[in-house]
Amino acid sequence: MKKVIVTTTINPPTEAMRRFEAVAGWDLVVVGDLKTPKDYQLDHSTYVSPEMQEEYDKALSDAIGWNCIMRRSFGLLWAHDMGADVVAVVDDDNIPYENWGMDLLIGRKVEVNYYQTKLPAFDPIGATNEGHLWHRGYPLELIPKRDYSRKTSLVMEPDVQADLWDGDPDIDALCRMVYAPECKFDEKYFPFASNKIAPFDSQNTFLRGSLLKNYFLFPHVGRMDDIWASYYIQAMGGKVVFNKPSVYQARNEHNSITDMKNEYIGYENNLKLVRDIAKDPEQIFKYLPKRTVEAFSLYRRHFSA
Q1: Which of 95, 162, 163, 238 has its CA 20 to 30 A from that of 124?
Q2: How many helices (H) and strands (E) does the chain have?
Q3: Which pLDDT tens digit goes with each residue over 91-125?
Q4: Which H helix or E strand runs over 207?
């Protein structure tokens, strides 16, 4: 099984990246940006420089734009070209635990706690011991209505494994400003899944390589880039299991007000979007700017051969 880790960075090589590079059985692909040091180098990884990205697909590069985490989509294309069966998408401020990547559920039948809800979306964080928080991109209108009382067991074979993160969790700016949490998730709650669409991020997530054609980190939609990607891939039939934390998130410096502004498109549209794409996945395109749709089309043409 070919397994590839994909990340982006504007920082010099970090201890976290050296740890990911050293994980046995995985290849690491690091995607650079204009702010990434020109001499970026790790000993046993592939560094995709801005120049390499431009040579690979100048039109896609222009459509995505620079100085944004969505450059990571070039790493997904690199992983596809490498023949990846499983792709792990991680952030460069994640510190992997020693067992990172060893509890791989993709390609296996696994018994999960299975939550059924009548709401149009499921919040994974609410199903844990940190249930006062909520995942970035979960429709705010649904937070007071969350209900985890209908829980059974189910054996399923996931297409996506979204591992959580101790430390500073992936919550939206409003939640972070209110709670400023330092999380330690209790492993007894995992793994779990739901009958409804749920947000997952591109911070510590494993995907089948066969899903990459439909998994694109949408540029020009603020901090909904990976969230809307997660909603879309589930609407297209991808099955997601949430698993115990396998990293500690030592979060890079952020401005919460700036994050909140960049999340507003989600605050305004997430509930309508999940309702629409549950009926027709292609309804997502009415929420995307024209240049985002063009970028997605350019990305997808690499899978047409």
Answers
A1: 95
A2: 8, 11
A3: 988 999 999 999 999 989 999 999 999 999 999 99
A4: strand 204-208
Residue 178: partners with Cβ closer than 8 Å, 6 or more residues away = none
Answer whether 81's CB lies under 8 Å from 138's CB: no
Contact 165, 204 (CB under 8 A): yes
The one-letter amino acid code at 75 reads G
Q: Residue 14 and residue 29: Cα distance in Å, rounded?
A: 14
Strands 94-96 and 240-249: antiparallel
Question: Cα separation of 243 and 112, whole Å?
Answer: 9
Domains of the chain: 3-303 (3.90.550)
Confidence check: pLDDT of 253 > 80: no
6 contacts 29 by C-beta, under 8 angstroms:
yes
Q: What is the largest CA-CA distance in the chain?
A: 53
Q: For residue 132, what are its two tokens? A: 């006062």
E-assigned strands of 223-302?
240-249
Q: Where are the beta strands (DSSP E) in 43-197?
A: 46-48, 86-90, 94-96, 110-115, 151-156, 160-167, 192-194
